[in-house]
């Protein structure tokens, strides 16, 4: 008994030591900002040495070129090689260089700007200096499939098979990066138990298939919801399962699956999200139709950008 207690305490002590040690290890400055706002990433030499005639280089996640300054030449005055993501959005503070301040400002941030930035002075004597800054951009979940490469497209949902009492629903997502989380939900937003997702990866793009079994419940509509947390992307597709009424004939055509575009009645934020998606889909369909048939009514113009 006593031994157990002692061990527990020792365990707890070493665990907390490990956590503290880890946190102290890296002197990473964290900057938190919101999507659409500008973010200043700080980086200054403690010596306040003049850096006008030297080099400093900002990189994101050790790979993307954010901002390179070399004795007055940088990406905003002719130098090439800046990553596409940052072109025209990053500047330094020229008046601060003489005080050893290599901070930069990133304009109009989006969630994909989140990550670890390094600010390197490769030619500072006696040794190169590296500063790490973690940037976290908060954003709300929305459909970003048209803005961010790798954001999952709307999933494909089908009825796989059906027995008298059960229906197997399949949801497929293809070519997404980062790896998406896929869930089946009922119309109350409750996550349904599902089989283990089948995940495959090719060229850093993930495809996920998720199968669930549904039985007759109070709802007939089911949603496959695809989420990519890091890029705050969410998309979904729904499927209508016409479960048999007890009086109906079981012999033929019992289950018909497919895309239904009826009015939705679901609760919570997902409902709003799906209704918006639905309206957008209808808008697309209508504008497609108008292209074919120009006399067919005026254009619908709802502003859905803020969702
Ligand atoms: C460096 O310059 C930025 C922009 O003017 C400023 O916000 C920051 O406080 C400066 N850092 C230091 C250490 O002076
Ligand atoms: C900010 O970025 C978004 C998309 O990333 C773009 O639609 C918008 O026009 C930008 N705003 C400004 C002020 O540049």
Give me a quick take on this structure.
InterPro entries: BTN3A2-like_Ig-C, Ig-like_dom, Ig-like_dom_sf, Ig-like_fold, Ig_sub, Ig_V-set, IgSF_BTN/MOG. The chain is an alpha+beta fold and 307 residues long. Helix content is 16%, strand content 33%.
Q: Secondary-structure element sequence?
A: HEEEEEEEEEEEEEEEH
The level of helicity is 10-25%
Query: Order of strands in the sheet with the most strands?
Result: 1-8-7-3-4
User: Largest sheet, if any?
Assistant: 5 strands, mixed
Terminal CA distance reads 58 Å
Using DSSP, what is the number of strands?
15
Determine the structural class based on helices, strands and strand pairing: alpha+beta
CATH class of the largest domain, named Mainly Beta
The CATH superfamily of the largest domain is known as Immunoglobulins
Indicate how many domains the architecture comprises.
Answer: 3
Q: Runs with pLDDT <50, length 5+?
A: 1-25, 250-269, 289-307
**Proportion of residues in β-strands:** 25-35%
Helix run count: 2
CATH overall fold name of the largest domain: Immunoglobulin-like
Mass-distribution shape: elongated
Radius of gyration: 27 Å
């Amino acid at each position: 008994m006593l031994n157990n207690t002692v061990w527990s305490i020792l365990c707890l002590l070493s665990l907390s030591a490990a956590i503290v040690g880890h946190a102290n290890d890296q002197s990473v400055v964290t900057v938190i900002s919101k999507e659409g706002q500008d973010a200043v990433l700080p980086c200054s030499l403690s010596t306040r040495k003049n850096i006008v005639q030297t080099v400093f280089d900002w990189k994101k996640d050790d790979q993307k070129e954010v901002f390179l300054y070399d004795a007055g030449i940088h990406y905003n005055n002719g130098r090439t090689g800046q990553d596409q993501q940052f072109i025209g959005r990053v500047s330094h503070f020229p008046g601060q260089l003489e005080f050893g301040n290599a901070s930069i400002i990133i304009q109009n941030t989006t969630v994909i700007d989140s990550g670890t930035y390094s600010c390197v002075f490769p030619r500072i004597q006696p040794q190169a200096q590296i500063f790490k800054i973690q940037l976290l951009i908060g954003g709300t979940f929305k459909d970003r499939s048209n803005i961010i490469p790798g954001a999952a497209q709307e999933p494909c949902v089908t009825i796989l098979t059906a027995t008298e009492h059960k229906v197997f629903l399949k949801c497929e997502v293809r070519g997404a990066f980062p790896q998406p989380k896929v869930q089946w939900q009922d119309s109350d937003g409750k996550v349904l138990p599902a089989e283990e997702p089948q995940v495959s990866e090719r060229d850093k793009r993930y495809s996920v298939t998720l199968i669930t079994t549904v039985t007759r419940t109070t709802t007939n509509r089911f949603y496959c919801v695809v989420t990519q947390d890091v890029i705050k992307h969410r998309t979904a597709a729904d499927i209508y399962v016409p479960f048999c009424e007890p009086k109906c004939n079981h012999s033929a055509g019992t289950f018909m699956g497919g895309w239904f575009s009826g009015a939705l009645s679901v609760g919570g934020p997902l409902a709003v999200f799906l209704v918006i998606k639905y309206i957008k889909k209808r808008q697309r369909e209508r504008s497609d139709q108008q292209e074919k048939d120009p006399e067919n009514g005026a254009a619908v113009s709802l502003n859905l950008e803020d969702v």
